[in-house]
Amino acid sequence: MRFPGRLSAAIAVLADVEQRKRPVSEALKAWGLNNRFAGAGDRAAIGNLVYDALRRRASHAAAMGSDTPRALVLAVAMRDWGETPESLNQAFASDTHAPEPLSPQEAAGAVAVLAAAPLATQADMPDWLAASLERALGPDWVAEGQAMAGRPSLDLRVNALKATPEKVMKSLARFSPQSAAIAPFGLTMPAGPRDARTPNVTTDEGYLKGWFEVQDQGSQIVAALANAREGEQVLDLCAGAGGKTLALAANMGNSGQIFAYDSDRSRLAPIYDRLKRNGVRNAQVRAPNDNALDDLVGKMDRVVVDAPCTGTGTWRRRPDTKWKLTPELLAQRQAEQAALLVEAARYLKPGGTLAYITCSVLPEENDDQIAAFLAETPGFASLDIAAAWRQALITDLPEGLATAGGGLCLTPLRTGTDGFYIHLLRKA
Ligand SMILES: C[S@@+](CC[C@H](N)C(=O)[O-])C[C@H]1O[C@@H](n2cnc3c(N)ncnc32)[C@H](O)[C@@H]1O
């Protein structure tokens, strides 16, 4: 397929996403099945166009004066991929699969200036979230929003139980991985421009042997800050597919015991294979049966709550969720988080540590949630996050990451990672 045909396909996929309220990955897969002539390069390019359109949906729509799939995809070509109206119309003229030529109004979108547009539009986020973002991230919130609308890097965590960074770098040399800026076992491959393909690392021998996992550097940092130590009894209360569990196990050198639990059996399902592949021997999976955790009450050194959240920190990877988020969904997540904090506290022994984590930057899910918990639960106090950073990451806490409420917030702008929040609490 040539570029114009790829644009037409992206318009069709985006229309499918919007009309049928489908996840992007599903719509892309369906398009691939119906268009088997398309190669891997075509599918990657079409995926990039669709994801880029959704990442900057608000500003692209404002520039084009329209939010149709066609307007959004043409905006990506001109505003993100360096095409001009002239280059597009010229290419369209010689490709029977091309979209219709650009109208003068569409062509004007290429040079539209959005300085007078609402700040939420410039930050590429829904209007109703602007106040929360400003409260959480301060005067830079528009630039933070713009960074949250960029393409993410592909990050790996070297599994210290089986490999070294040097070994993984050698195994993946063809993709030129670099050391991550903060996470000690992190490797990163920056996102390329335009139709660049994401390296397919999960077919690498090193991955199959458990030498590394795909994990955003932000997720690695908060897992390190949870600071699970050798010999401890640790409950991973929202283990899901085990991304944090694996990192905790490596941090603990396979000693002590991790109990990995999740209330959703299907989310937990991949954890068994992942534990095996990673050579983890100190984790016990607790499936969500009645009384599954009763024997752990009051016994844990550490409880990690990687809470269900709105995922605002992962908008770069799942930009469709940005536009689907509603105040009702946020309220639902807040209620779940509040209940989980109370639940987590039960399992700690005196002197134990609760690590509360979200992949969101909204204060309602972060500092506010902890403040409400502390107000209602006697006997808990925040641990010094700068000291925890020094202990876990052996450097000083970079400026601007600590939150007003005593937690820590990573963002694409500040740390080049997904957005994450962590707060450490000690039970008296
Ligand atoms: C952010 S995800 C966890 C991701 C996982 N820790 C990882 O690193 O891959 C949140 C998880 O919380 C689980 N969850 C939601 N409510 C829960 C509850 N009341 N008890 C335990 N797990 C819960 C969800 O099923 C979901 O898997």
From TrEMBL:
Species this protein is from: Devosia chinhatensis
SAM-dependent MTase RsmB/NOP-type domain location is 144-428
Q: Which Pfam families match?
A: Methyltr_RsmB-F, RsmF-B_ferredox
Stated family: Belongs to the class I-like SAM-binding methyltransferase superfamily. RsmB/NOP family.
Family matches, as CDD domains:
AdoMet_MTases
What are this entry's molecular-function GO terms? Answer: RNA binding; RNA methyltransferase activity
Say which domain of life the source belongs to.
Bacteria
Q: What is the name of this protein?
A: MFS transporter
Q: Which GO terms describe its biological process?
A: RNA methylation
